[in-house]
Amino acid sequence: xxxxxxxxxxxxxxxxxxxxxxxxxxxxxxxxxxxxxxxxxxxxxxxxxxxxxxxxxxxxxxxxxxxxxxxxxxxxxxxxxxxxxxxxxxxxxxxxxxxxxxxxxxxxxxxxxxxxxxxxxxxxxxxxxxxxxxxxxxxxxxxxxxxxxxxxxxxxxxxxxxxxxxxxxxxxxxxxxxxxxxxxxxxxxxxxxxxxxxxxxxxxxxxxxxxxxxxxxxxxxxxxxxxxxxxxxxxxxxxxxxxxxxxxxxxxxxxxxxxxxxxxxxxxxxxxxxxxxxxxxxxxxxxxxxxxxxxxxxxxxxxxxxxxxxxxxxxxxxxxxxxxxxxxxxxxxxxxxxxxxxxxxxxxxxxxxxxxxxxxxxxxxxxxxxxxxxxxxxxxxxxxxxxxxxxxxxxxxxxxxxxxxxxxxxxxxxxxxxxxxxxxxxxxxxxxxxxxxxxxxxxxxxxxxxxxxxxxxxxxxxxxxxxxxxxxxxxxxxxxxxxxxxxxxxxxxxxxxxxxxxxxxxxxxxxxxxxxxxxxxxxxxxxxxxxxxxxxxxxxxxxxxxxxxxxxxxxxxxxxxxxxxxxxxxxxxxxxxxxxxxxxxxxxxxxxxxxxxxxxxxxxxxxxxxxxxxxxxxxxxxxxxxxxxxxxxxxxxxxxxxxxxxxxxxxxxxxxxxxxxxxxxxxxxxxxxxxxxxxxxxxxxxxxxxxxxxxxxxxxxxxxxxxxxxxxxxxxxxxxxxxxxxxxxxxxxxxxxxxxxxxxxxxxxxxxxxxxxxxxxxxxxxxxxxxxxxxxxxxxxxxxxxxxxxxxxxxxxxxxxxxxxxxxxxxxxxxxxxxxxxx
RNA sequence: GCCCGGGUGGCGAAACAGGUAGACGCGGCGGUCUUAAACACCGCUGUCCCGCAGGGGCGUGGGGGUUCGAGUCCCUCCCCGGGCACCA
Length: 823
Prior knowledge:
Blueprint: H1 3-20, H2 36-51, E1 55-65, E2 70-72, E3 77-78, E4 81-82, E5 90-99, H3 105-108, H4 118-128, E6 130-140, E7 145-150, E8 161-164, H5 171-174, H6 180-192, H7 195-198, E9 208-215, E10 222-227, E11 239-242, H8 248-257, E12 265-267, E13 286-288, E14 298-299, H9 308-319, E15 323-329, E16 334-335, E17 337-338, E18 348-350, E19 356-358, H10 383-386, E20 387-389, E21 395-398, E22 402-403, H11 406-409, H12 412-416, H13 428-434, E23 437-442, H14 450-463, H15 468-476, E24 489-494, E25 497-499, E26 507-515, E27 518-526, E28 537-545, E29 548-553, E30 556-561, E31 567-569, H16 601-608, H17 610-619, E32 626-628, H18 634-649, H19 659-681, H20 685-705, H21 710-724, H22 729-738, H23 755-758, E33 763-769, E34 772-779, H24 785-794, H25 796-802, E35 807-813, E36 817-822
Parallel strand pairs: 8-10, 23-24, 25-32, 27-30, 27-31, 33-36
Antiparallel strand pairs: 1-2, 1-5, 3-4, 5-16, 6-7, 6-9, 6-15, 8-11, 9-10, 12-13, 13-14, 17-22, 18-19, 18-21, 20-21, 26-27, 26-28, 28-29, 29-30, 33-34, 35-36
Helix pairs in contact: 13-15, 16-17, 17-18, 18-20, 18-22, 19-20, 19-21, 20-21, 21-22
The chain binds one RNA strand through helix 4, strand 7, strand 11, helix 8 and helix 18.
């Protein structure tokens, strides 16, 4: 199917689903990022990034997914596998387009001024991976310089060898003829390995000696240079100084190849380390020894200059021109080229002279493509698309790669401001009013992709003056723009995920015979109550693949083969049964089609109604946490909706109304307003619904006793409907109108709690003896300390407790608590 | 290994600021209604012990501490979820 058709179909289905759930969006602001109306501005931003030196073309070793036939960003590779298909990714050297996100690394590490969840901040910080240390230059005997990044320049005096990544460009010149064969062989082997294999934990260290030597700049000593795959070309300079005495990896390598180990840290209050007999690297604090100028300097667990020994070493290196203080990041620049058809074209042109220039004729439209072979992108061979002219009217070629889809989502909030604005990505008037985003919600799985990219985009757009008109307009409207364009979203909240429901599998009774470790079935019968010994194999069905069953029996899991001719009997299902009708055990885990544990929202809405489904989703989970679906729990939500209907349609007639009962209902209503207010602003939807259920309970009781006035009844019912409106929009609107209100419940002013009405008339005062609750009494909320103590000491039960000893101390916290210490 | 979350009844979960643990709901039990089942309605429901009753002991992953008082604060350990990881 053509991706355009597929995409638009999905959008239609999603739109229908959202509408049926009663989602309240401003549909006038809808836009679609694969529509040229939108992506022309993505291209425009790319061109702006190119002109501002944020987008650049560079050669790098990239993650290539053979399955998808495209490169992937580092963020899209998990454990060496493509995060979408789970297939291994290989390394390939290619010229691609990058965004200089690393220029913003330090700013991206600063989260001051934004209210984001701790885990997301931690993930981004982790991802960026800033480390402080020094860059030190080692010189080889042939005169080549090898810069090395280290976080521990203080241990330079203990460096006994160097290691380069196998792909390091200097390996060739360094390698001595007598070592050439071994080095070449090792490099070939390393290249053939996937990233996945290289990352396997606890592998034995491998490597070979190049035969070359470098000079340690701090003491002029010659140290051998090795190559090994535990050094990665993509981190730092692709070369390290190895200090085996104080680094676990270097230590393992040194022992493997019998290289010397020289300790330069003496642990606090312990004898000096002996390089020959150490069994593991020492990475703790102590005092520097055998380290020339920094001898005797204390070393701590602190990072960077905060560690005195590191500070001393950096100072010495800088004074002697042997190195400089340096910061290194784990994060790489963002690779945005994709070899795919379905994406935003990269609006660049290759001139005949080999230079590159941006396309001036935006938008560069994605041509209609007729064939999708699943092979290389049709753009790469589409002559009509590729052929163009440059700014001097000479024939030129278009870039055939498209952009990573995260490009589109990195700036879409700005397009929402004015999706049809024609002269810029967004209307600065709208931006001056709305920006920045107050609250944004989404899953934490976007932490190092969408959310990090979006922060980067905003900062880059700010620096490229994209917000200048907006800033000018803000000032005209007396709004201070200072700091408003440093971050896209002021508050972020992550919603949890609804997981699949746990379900027991059928209990199977299998007759048949053992054959080569497997059990071959003659018959399979479902029987929930079969005893263990009813057949050779009896137990719960855990998993089924084709005609192979995993059955959990009393003696462990048994693999059962069910031949075609075997008889299958499922009592609940008529006719001739088949293995596919057996129900297997479902664990609590993410919903997915392949696991068969998906709860379809359309079906739920069909069965229970949109209001019930919304209410249940809000009520049953901590919104930020999520959890397993419970198909029974939704009944409670439905009961609540039914009760609200009953309450809303009741023609209430007061019976023996009392002031007490009326005030009590009013108090409940006003306390509910207060609670719902607080809970909703804290994303505590579950407790907001609980508060509304409590008000429902009070209303049902009032309806039974008819002891409240009509005014109190009406106030409480209206309050319930307004507070419930955001969660159950349909039923509240209908009841609101039936109760004779003209305007929409959704437009009605949010109620205000009256503190005088909400105030409790009496509170329960807890009386403790030695911290244990021994009695409770009702008291006036304004009771003073003396009165509270007197009342507490006066109850019969407390008197008995007081008789057991002498009062040592009385702590009073009126009106809630009096604690009497008796011994 | 490092960094974040988290661990509370049979289950989903509450508990503002160190002060009544378990709100609200599910499930379960008992009852009313019904020929019956379902629905609905009423009541009970942390756990153990004594009991005719009033009660009492224990209880927020384990252990220790601070405090008149700890789910909440401190130390330590265990377990679960997520992220990063031969990152120099």
